[in-house]
Structure formats: structure tokens, C-alpha cells
């Protein structure tokens, strides 16, 4: 059965409808791209799947458990241990070095500093940014910063990585490099990836594309 299921989600922000019947199933290890025009509800769907936004109606189930029925503490523990996040702008902590940024999710799980930083450094190497370990985010390029952010998302070996326009601030060469490394690392660790993008070339790295229009989903059938 699917790892993560959103069923008939509805969500409004005041009078503004964002989701009006969105459904999506994510299977373990697959890479799904959520596509659609600006304002169609892609980010809201991603945030509902990740338990960051609670829908007005409909269900989100992770591993058989209903997210909206969980206490807040259980939902945030789930996000910390089972989910990883990559945003459009890396959102790295500027005061910490890159290796400290990547180690942070492990430190929050009480992994000792040396061990956390050793594992973080391995992830930086895997993302081909081992050389920026000791630099602060302000001293690295946009492409390097996003690869550091991907390393941080994967360091806890999550079951699902949520990525909201992860290449949106990058040129196409760096965007493709981030997508190639993100999807390869996810495949190695067995993580599913749920990605929001409006760029067909970025969606091309997915196994499956789901289109959101006016808050509703429509699965595209593969053409091959
Ligand atoms: P997309 O990711 O496809 O651009 P969003 O999910 O961000 O779409 O937005 C869907 C609709 O909900 C839009 O009309 C947007 O303006 C509105 N919306 C999204 N987030 C908020 C918010 N926090 N407060 C008010 N309106 C919001
Ligand atoms: P990449 O293409 O791998 O992202 P670049 O060729 O853009 O890297 O950058 C090479 C080096 O220049 C980096 O190691 C970084 O230290 C420095 N650099 C690049 N862009 C910036 C920036 N915006 N701010 C600070 N340093 C940068």
C-alpha cells in the first residue's frame, strides 16, 4: 500500500480556496512531481502531505496513521525523523558552517557532535560539496547552498523528502545538478521524493507527474 495518501483535500485561507478536492498517493521510494500553474494549490498540497498545514476536510495518512488525528508533538516528531525538507532558498542557518547546518537535524535527535558532523561530512561529499564543509552559507554559491540543503534533508535518512521549488533560484545547469544528486541519493536510501515545480525539465527527473489545477489533482498517465 502507499506510504503517504492524501484523499479529497479541501483547504481555504479565509475566503480563498486553495484545495478543492486534491488526492495523491505516494509509494515508498518513488519520485513524484507536483506541477501546475502558479496559485493552483501545489504548495498547499505539499504542506498538507507534510503535516505542516491541516486541511479543512479530507485525510492525510502516513504509514496508515491519520496525521490530523495526531497530537502536535507526535506530528512534529514525525516531521523531524521521517521527513526531510528542501525549500527554494536553502534556508540554511547563516551563523553555522555548512557541515554544522547538515549536522543540525542529527543534533536535534541527540546524536553526539563528532558523530553528527562525521555523518554530515559524508553527506556533503555525496552531494559533491565536501569542499564547503567549513564555510558559512554566505560564502558559497547558490548551487552549492542548495546541495548543502539537500544533504541536510537526507542526513536523517527520511522516508519522504519534500522539496518545494528546490531549483527555483538556480540557473538550469545548477538546477539539473541538484535534481540529479537529489534523486540519486533518494534512490540509494530508498526515500520517496515529493517535489513541487513548474519546470518541465525538473519534473523530468520524477517517476510520475501529478497536475494540480484550481485546487484539484489530475494524474497524468505515463506516455511510455
Ligand atoms: P501554488 O503553490 O500552486 O502557487 P499555493 O498552494 O501557494 O499555490 O496557493 C493556492 C492559493 O492559496 C492561492 O490563491 C494563494 O494565494 C492562496 N494561499 C496560499 N497560502 C496562503 C496563505 N498562507 N494565506 C492566504 N492565502 C494563501
Ligand atoms: P557551483 O557552480 O559549483 O555552484 P561556482 O562556480 O558558482 O560554484 O562558485 C565557485 C566558488 O566561488 C565557490 O566555491 C564559492 O566559494 C564562490 N562563490 C560563488 N558564488 C558565490 C556567492 N554568491 N557568494 C560567495 N561566494 C561565491
Automatic annotation (TrEMBL):
<dbReference type="InterPro" id="IPR003439">
    <property type="entry name" value="ABC_transporter-like_ATP-bd"/>
</dbReference>
<dbReference type="InterPro" id="IPR015854">
    <property type="entry name" value="ABC_transpr_LolD-like"/>
</dbReference>
<dbReference type="GO" id="GO:0016887">
    <property type="term" value="F:ATP hydrolysis activity"/>
</dbReference>
<dbReference type="Pfam" id="PF00005">
    <property type="entry name" value="ABC_tran"/>
</dbReference>
<keyword id="KW-0813">Transport</keyword>
<protein>
    <submittedName>
        <fullName>ABC transporter ATP-binding protein</fullName>
    </submittedName>
</protein>
<keyword id="KW-0547">Nucleotide-binding</keyword>
<dbReference type="GO" id="GO:0022857">
    <property type="term" value="F:transmembrane transporter activity"/>
</dbReference>
<dbReference type="InterPro" id="IPR003593">
    <property type="entry name" value="AAA+_ATPase"/>
</dbReference>
<feature type="domain" description="ABC transporter">
    <location>
        <begin position="4"/>
        <end position="223"/>
    </location>
</feature>
<dbReference type="InterPro" id="IPR027417">
    <property type="entry name" value="P-loop_NTPase"/>
</dbReference>
<dbReference type="GO" id="GO:0005886">
    <property type="term" value="C:plasma membrane"/>
</dbReference>
<dbReference type="InterPro" id="IPR017911">
    <property type="entry name" value="MacB-like_ATP-bd"/>
</dbReference>
<keyword id="KW-0067">ATP-binding</keyword>
<dbReference type="GO" id="GO:0005524">
    <property type="term" value="F:ATP binding"/>
</dbReference>
Amino acid at each position: 500500500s502507499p506510504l503517504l495518501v492524501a484523499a479529497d483535500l479541501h483547504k481555504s485561507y479565509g475566503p480563498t480556496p486553495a484545495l478543492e478536492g486534491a488526492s495523491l498517493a505516494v509509494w515508498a521510494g518513488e519520485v513524484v512531481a507536483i506541477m501546475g500553474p502558479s496559485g493552483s494549490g501545489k504548495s498547499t498540497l505539499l504542506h498538507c502531505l507534510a503535516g505542516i498545514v491541516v486541511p479543512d476536510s479530507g485525510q492525510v495518512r502516513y504509514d496508515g496513521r491519520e496525521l490530523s488525528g495526531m497530537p502536535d508533538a507526535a506530528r512534529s516528531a514525525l516531521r523531524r525523523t521521517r521527513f526531510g525538507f528542501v525549500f527554494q532558498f536553502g534556508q540554511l542557518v547563516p551563523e553555522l558552517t555548512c557541515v554544522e547546518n547538515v549536522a543540525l537535524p542529527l543534533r536535534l535527535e541527540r546524536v553526539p557532535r563528532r558523530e553528527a558532523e562525521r555523518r554530515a561530512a559524508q553527506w556533503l561529499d555525496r552531494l559533491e560539496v565536501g569542499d564547503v564543509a567549513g564555510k558559512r552559507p554566505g560564502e558559497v554559491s547558490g548551487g552549492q547552498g542548495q546541495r548543502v540543503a539537500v544533504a541536510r534533508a537526507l542526513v536523517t535518512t527520511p522516508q519522504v523528502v519534500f522539496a518545494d521549488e528546490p531549483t527555483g533560484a538556480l540557473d538550469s545547469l545548477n538546477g539539473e545538478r541538484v535534481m540529479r544528486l537529489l534523486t540519486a541519493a533518494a534512490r540509494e536510501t530508498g526515500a520517496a521524493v515529493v517535489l513541487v515545480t513548474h519546470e518541465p525539465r525538473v519534473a523530468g527527473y520524477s517517476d510520475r507527474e501529478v497536475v494540480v489545477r484550481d485546487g484539484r489533482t489530475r494524474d497524468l498517465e505515463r506516455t511510455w
